[in-house]
Amino acid sequence: MSSASTPSSPAPKLLDLVRDRIRVKHYSIRTETQYVQWIRRFESKVNQR
User: Fold this and answer.
1) What is the dihedral of CA 28, 30, 11, 44, to 10 degrees?
2) C-alpha gyration radius of the chain
3) Rounded Cα distance, 47 and 49, in Å
4) What is the CA angle 13-14-15, rounded to 5?
5) How far apart are CA 26 and CA 20, in angstroms?
6) pLDDT digit string (tens) for 1-49?
7) CA gap 40, 37 in Å, rounded
8) For residue 22, what are the contacts with CB-CB under 8 A and spacing of at least 6?
9) pTM of the model
């Protein structure tokens, strides 16, 4: 059996990756919150186009 035929866990979402990276870098929880909010606003503006 090849590993390509077996489904793996779904890829992590962008915001999950951002949160993980911010936590690894030991940033403040408020910094994490602001980054996530900025990304959400950015995505909503891009999707409005």
Assistant:
1) -150
2) 15
3) 5
4) 95
5) 10
6) 555 666 688 888 999 999 999 999 999 999 999 999 999 999 999 988 7
7) 5
8) 31, 32, 35
9) 0.71
Q: Whose structure tokens read 């793996």?
A: 8
What three-state secondary structure class fits 42? Answer: helix
Q: Round to whole Å and give the CA distance between 29 and 5.
A: 39
The predicted pLDDT at position 6 comes to: 63
Distance CA 39, CA 15 (A): 8
Name the residue with tokens 């186009």: 49
